Amino acid sequence: DAGVTQSPTHLIKTRGQHVTLRCSPISGHKSVSWYQQVLGQGPQFIFQYYEKEERGRGNFPDRFSARQFPNYSSELNVNALLLGDSALYLCASSPPRGGGNEQFFGPGTRLTVL
Amino acid sequence: AQSVTQPDIHITVSEGASLELRCNYSYGATPYLFWYVQSPGQGLQLLLKYFSGDTLVQGIKGFEAEFKRSQSSFNLRKPSVHWSDAAEYFCAVGPEYGNKLVFGAGTILRVKS
Questions:
Q1: A4 contacts A104 by C-beta, under 8 angstroms
Q2: Are A44 and A28 in contact (CB under 8 A)?
Q3: Distances (CA, A) of A65 to A68, B66, B86
Q4: Closest CA to B106 of B44, B57, B56, B63
Q5: C-alpha span between B7 and B14 (Å, rounded)
Q6: β-pair type (A10-13, A109-113)
Q7: Sign of CA dihedral B90, B91, B96, B102
Q8: Contact (CB, 8 A) for A58 and A45
Q9: Which of B33, B15, B37 is nearest to B24 (CA)?
Q10: Tens-place pLDDT, residues B23-64
């Protein structure tokens, strides 16, 4: 089975621009979460979506938004990019309730803001 | 507040030597604990997890971890390290349901031959 996929792999943007990152969960997984991993730090939780509804939000500004589609894929949008948004953005999907809180991570999208 | 502390930023061990990576957590409810490994430029791979039951859990690649509630610790161990184990290791804690994992800052493992 295919794992979690993310696109693009790398992205370079300039300050003030907008970016959209995409994630496809493992087949059968209905929950998708997004994390930001700044160089030298552990991942930080941004959003969780389950059945197309937001179920959790981390301590990130409103410039960050996300959505989940009927096929359970997800997009993370970041507006008005800042230099500090440069990071690896990780998407993770989880099996339905009862399968344990195990998250399967994708390879990430490396965002560089110049 | 929920938090995970990994006291060691870097650890260097000789190939074939034993390994222990430390993890301490602060969590208000029953913790669900995880260890992930990340190779350079890669995503996170789950090594093992603890939900309940036996406090010594076995994972992939010969890793194990022991949950000690009294010490709020979940240390990762491996009896004999291989050069391919060089990577960054993250401890994480989360709720039973819901995906908001809280990660530690990571420990970079270097293996010398």
A1: yes
A2: no
A3: 11, 38, 35
A4: B44
A5: 20
A6: parallel
A7: negative
A8: yes
A9: B33
A10: 999 988 778 899 999 998 788 999 999 988 889 999 999 999
Pairwise CB contact (< 8 Å): A43 & B44? yes
Higher pLDDT, B51 or A45: A45
- Window 80-109 of B, Cβ < 8 Å to A: 90, 92, 94-106
Site of tokens 């076995």:
B58
Q: Which amino acid is at A75?
A: E
Distance CA A88, CA A9 (A): 10
Task: Show which of residues 70-99 on chain A sit within 8 Å of chain B, judged by CB atoms.
Answer: 90, 92, 94, 97
Cβ B44–A105 below 8 Å, yes or no?
Answer: yes
pLDDT above 90 for A97:
no
- CB-nearest to A42 from B32, B45, B103 is B103
Strand partners, A11: A111
